Amino acid sequence: MKILEQKLSRIDLNLLVSLSVLLKERHVGKSAETLFITQPAMSRTLQRLRDLFDDQLFYRTSVGISPTAKALELERMLPHALESLNSILSSEEFDPLTCEQSFSISIPSILSHNLILPLFNLLHKEAPSIQLIESTAKSNPFDLLEAGTLDFAIHVAKDIPPRFNAMSIGIVKTVIFARKDHPLTNKKQVTLDDCLTYDFVSLNVENNQSAKFTGPVEIMLAKRGASKEPLYKTSQLQMLLEIMENSDCLFVGPSLLINSLDLINHFVAVYEFNLPKKDMIEFFLLEHKRSENSKAHQWFKEKLLNQIEKLS
């Protein structure tokens, strides 16, 4: 491949266009008119073509020029070669129905629970051949985005390197959830101190337990001057909910979770953190700038953002 690239780098691809015109017109003068150049310039181009292919290519006749066997061989290959070049250089419309691309995204479990199923159903309907790859949210997704392992990441960091595009997708209210028959649901007004008398469960941001990342329980409680280490941590929301159903454990999460059918019938928000906007959790959609001109990626991004908007 390296030798091929070095060889092609010494070739003016415009010569192939000129050769194509010469083969069609079979006349130097008419070819010059087609390309809007002078006849002497066309003659010089023909000489460069002869040097390139080490062949006479055309012989003069009384009515124009006649191709050699080598030129006729090139005539059979040129349409495909030029069409391939045109496909590379042209900006064709993106058709989701024929797209076979895969898209990888990391999503926090607290958002994935409500987001992935409707997104998958939409994508499968509009682009049945694409592949959606979801992974657990990463405390540091930047290396994976840069390597192309991830196409998109939903993240909470605000210090975004300039080589990435970051779009705020919303600031969420954070609440403490309990099962519907939890003792706290009998109180008229629940305080944070009331909640701190119970154990908490928490969702891991990623499967890497050694990652130095503070989870939402720790963040929210620390901002209120409280401290409570979660009794149980998991990356599986369903397991967390089952534990809450069978214990008095509480869970700190975004208020939008209550819209989930899995939660609305079994859980209730017993306390809402009254935090200033600057201390609230803000989610960002991250992508590397290399994909900003990809119609496929931008189509996927639009569908993803539409589904995220429906969560609010």
Describe the structure concisely for a colleague:
InterPro entries: LysR-type_TF, LysR_HTH_N, LysR_subst-bd, WH-like_DNA-bd_sf, WH_DNA-bd_sf. The chain has 312 residues and is an alpha/beta fold.
What's the level 1 CATH class of the largest domain?
Answer: Alpha Beta
Q: Determine Rg (CA atoms, Å).
A: 31 Å
CATH homology superfamily of the largest domain:
Periplasmic binding protein-like II
**Morphology call:** rod-shaped
Task: Give the biggest sheet.
Answer: 5 strands, mixed
Q: From the coordinates shown, what is the CATH architecture of the largest domain? A: 3-Layer(aba) Sandwich
Helix content: 40-55%
Class inferred from helices and paired strands: alpha/beta
- Can you tell me the number of structural domains? 3
Number of helices: 12
